[in-house]
């Protein structure tokens, strides 16, 4: 187990959970401090945290099984609905992930959760190879986060993702 933050990742955006950061090249979350992750998981009773960890460990089948059980108990959970789409993204069913994120976006439009869904939708587009749609979603997430005076780490995460998508677009042209 690692006891310190993996070298060279201190400027990577946080990914919303201890020991996890967003890789600025792939825009996907990665474990950078296993000890911090394990400690946070041990202290958590939220099944969404374990689902996230299973996805990070590249165990989407196990994540999907735990997700089904958790969604049965709490079908309206916003976090679990996010992870439902994330399981699809992790298993390369990107069209389904995008569809679920778009549906969720319609439901949370105008709420404090809208920026979160734009960020996840942007990542799904980015992973699917659609850097233009990704940059549009990241720009919306960034605008909403700035307008709502979100935490600086969230604003930074959106800014890094937007810049990466724009860099990919520039390289493609």
Automatic annotation (TrEMBL):
Pfam families: TPR_19. Residues 80-107 form a coiled coil. Keywords: Coiled coil. The keyword Coiled coil applies. This is Tetratricopeptide repeat protein. It comes from Paenarthrobacter aromaticivorans.
């Amino acid at each position: 187990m690692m006891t310190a933050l993996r070298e060279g990742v201190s400027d990577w955006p946080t990914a919303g959970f201890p020991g996890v950061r967003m890789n600025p090249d792939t825009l996907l979350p990665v474990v950078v401090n296993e000890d911090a992750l394990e400690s946070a998981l041990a202290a958590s009773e939220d099944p969404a945290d374990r689902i996230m960890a299973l996805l990070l460990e590249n165990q989407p089948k196990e994540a999907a099984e735990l997700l089904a059980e958790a969604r049965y108990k709490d079908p309206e959970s916003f976090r679990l609905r996010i992870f439902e789409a994330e399981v699809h993204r992790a298993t390369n069913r990107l069209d389904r992930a995008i569809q679920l994120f778009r549906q969720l976006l319609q439901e949370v439009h105008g709420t404090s959760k809208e920026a979160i869904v734009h960020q996840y939708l942007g990542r799904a587009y980015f992973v699917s190879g659609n850097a233009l749609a990704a940059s549009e979603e990241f720009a919306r997430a960034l605008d909403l986060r700035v307008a709502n005076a979100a935490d600086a780490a969230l604003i930074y995460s959106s800014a890094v993702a937007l810049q990466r998508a724009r860099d990919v677009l520039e390289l493609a042209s």
